[in-house]
Structure formats: structure tokens, C-alpha cells
Amino acid sequence: MIKSDENLQPLNLSETISNRLISIIIPVYNAEKYLHTCVNSILAQAYSNFELLIIDDGSTDGSQDICDEIAHCDQRIKVYHTPNGGVSHARNLGLKYAEGQFIFWIDADDFLEPNALDSLLQIYSDTAAELVIGNAWYVSNTEKSEGINIQEDKILSRMDIVNYTRNYLSRPRPEALYTIWGKLYSASIIKENQLFFDNDLRCWEDVVFNFEYLMHIKKIAYTNTPLYNYVLRGDSLSWNIEESNIFGHFNALQAIAAFFHEVIPVQDVNKCVGHACVNFSIIKMVHLCRMLKLNNFVQIYRMINRLISNSMLRQSLSLYSPACGNSRLLPIFIKFKLTSLIIMLCYIKAKKRFKKK
């Protein structure tokens, strides 16, 4: 159980929380293989006072029919069909129609533990936190691993978030702390501050949203108990040559920097975010070159050329401190815009990093 500090006013769950409506939002795009499992895990929740908003984002498989079929099974389910506009568009549409006091997002190919909603609400009752974060399982065909590397239930301060984020930015890794799924948000804070997802982003959009949300809250509660199952699939791990994939981290880092500026000195912000800007950009270039073929060489060349011309990246080069094993040549090549040499070196790194076992 998470204990609140003396400034927090615990709430009586039976009297106050049991009548609070949770708006659960699922963006759906071509998820016919997984949708039943996802929805069934929601309908099986111990806490039943929720509305389920399923946003079909222009699916081209059988997802549309499954959504309509599911809607007839339970009056708490509402389905909205929209032309394909991306995950940010679908989530924004869910926010538009949400009527609950809390917002909870889940991806269509994931599923919940039976006590997920009940546990998050109990933590809210104990702490009055404006954001409640549950740990998650990363689920593959062979194993489960925890998604957040925090080993105890606790109230997270803004400085805690800064410290965890600093570690993440210095050594990027899968980290569920910055996703939007599996967390309980205050609907009033989102709507009063007019927080929405950037429709132009299909990658990093959740990081941008989360740090904008963090600007407006004071209390964050975390439980180390995994309540959400994030399913790792071949298609969910794929990586497309899209502008939002290549350039989205710039938006995310700007949102992180804005949050950092409220907590730590400017010079520390610039150093941390600047290093991450270069590091993430190099990771993007390696991923691009992993997909390099004769028929997409020109496209990738132009993408990398645009990437290394980005003003934020160029201003960050002097703040980059390569760790052991990181390239010291790539920042030099970026500085002098040696695109062909960048592609050659990133291609070699990609072959080594992603070689078949």
C-alpha cells in the first residue's frame, strides 16, 4: 500500500470512488486478432463503473465488424468509426467523447490484469494523486519482464521524474514510465488545460502528452504491482520510414525540457536534453540504415540529410558525451553534413547490432 504524506487528504473509497466513472479509450487499427482479448480483460475488471470508448481508426481488416459486434454485448461500450488519421487523432476523439472523471488508455493488442482499475482507484483514494501509474508486464511468446524499473510503491516527486528521465535519456531502453497506457489520469486536468495529442505525431506522441500533463500536476503515485500487459509482437516492433518516426523525438525532448526547466537549472537541462538529442538522432539513423536497400536509398539519404540539418540537433552537438561503445565519428560526420559517410557507418553499425542470431 502506498502511504500518503501529511499534506494529502485520503478519500473513502466506498463512499467517494465507487461512483467515479472511468473512461477507457482504445484506439483500434487493424487489430482483429487481438481485440476480443483486450476487451474481455476490460469487461472482467473487478471495478465495473466505466465506459469503454472504442475508436476504430479506419481499419481495413475485420476490426470494424468486431467493434460493432462488441458494442451490442454491453451498454458500457461505445464505438466510433473515423477515417484513418493516426493514433493521436483516435485518442483525441476518445477524449472528446469521454464523460468520466478519470481517463485510462489501453492499446488494442494489450490486456489488463483483473484488478487493474480497482488497484489504481484504491491508490488514488489513498493519495489523491493526479496521476496514478501501475507497473506493467512486457509479454513475449517466451517470457515476461517488468516494464518500469522502480522497485517499490511510492509517491513520485517531480525531482524523482527528472532523475528517472535523466537515466533514460542517457541510456535509452524500453520504459513504460513514459507511455500513456496503464495509467489513471484526471479528466478535468486534461480538459481544463486543453491537453491533446499532436495529430502530426505517430511516434513519441505519448511522451509529449505525458510531460505536458506533468506540468499541471503535483502528485504522482506509483505501484510496483504489474497491472497492464504490453504484448510484444513482430508487427508492434516494426519500424517504418515515416517522418514522425524520424523527427518525433525532437518534439518529445522539447516537452521534456519544458518540464525540466521548472525543476532543475537551465544549464543542466541543456546538457541532458542536448546529449539525448544527438544520441536519439544517431539511433534513428542506425534504424534507417538497417532498412537500407537499393530501392529506398534515395529516400533514406534525403531523410538523414534532413535529420542532420535540424537546428536542434546541430545546436546539441557540443553537448554530446559519447559513452563507452558509442561512436565518436558520427557526431563529426553530422557536424560537417557528410551524409554518405553517415549512411556507410550507420549501415555497418546496424548490421552488427541487428544481426540474425
Strand % is: 15-25%
- Which oligomerization state do the chains in this entry correspond to? single chain
Report the order of strands and helices: HEHEHEHEEHEEEHEHHEHHHHHH
Largest sheet, in brief, is: 10 strands, mixed
Characterize the overall form: globular
Tally of contiguous helical segments: 14
- Structural class of the secondary elements? alpha/beta
Features:
357 residues, alpha/beta, ten-stranded mixed sheet, disordered N terminus
Task: Report on this structure.
With 357 residues, the protein is an alpha/beta fold. It contains 14 helices and ten strands. Strands 1, 2, 3, 4, 5, 6, 7, 8, 9 and 10 form a ten-stranded mixed beta sheet that branches. It is globular. The termini are far apart. The model is unreliable at 3-15 (pLDDT under 50).
Spell out the blueprint of helices and strands.
Blueprint: H1 13-17, E1 22-28, H2 35-43, E2 50-57, H3 63-71, E3 77-82, H4 87-97, E4 102-105, E5 111-112, H5 116-127, E6 131-139, E7 144-146, E8 154-156, H6 158-170, E9 183-186, H7 187-192, H8 205-214, E10 220-231, H9 243-260, H10 266-290, H11 297-308, H12 311-316, H13 329-335, H14 339-353
Parallel strand pairs: 1-2, 1-4, 2-3, 6-10
Antiparallel strand pairs: 4-9, 5-10, 6-7, 6-9, 8-10
Helix pairs in contact: 8-9, 9-10, 10-11, 10-14, 11-14
Task: Provide a concise account of the structure shown.
This protein is α/β, with parallel strands linked by helices and 357 residues long. The protein is 44% helix and 16% strand. The chain has helices at 13-17, 35-43, 63-71, 87-97, 116-127, 158-170, 187-192, 205-214, 243-260, 266-290, 297-308, 311-316, 329-335, 339-353, and strands at 22-28, 50-57, 77-82, 102-105, 111-112, 131-139, 144-146, 154-156, 183-186, 220-231.
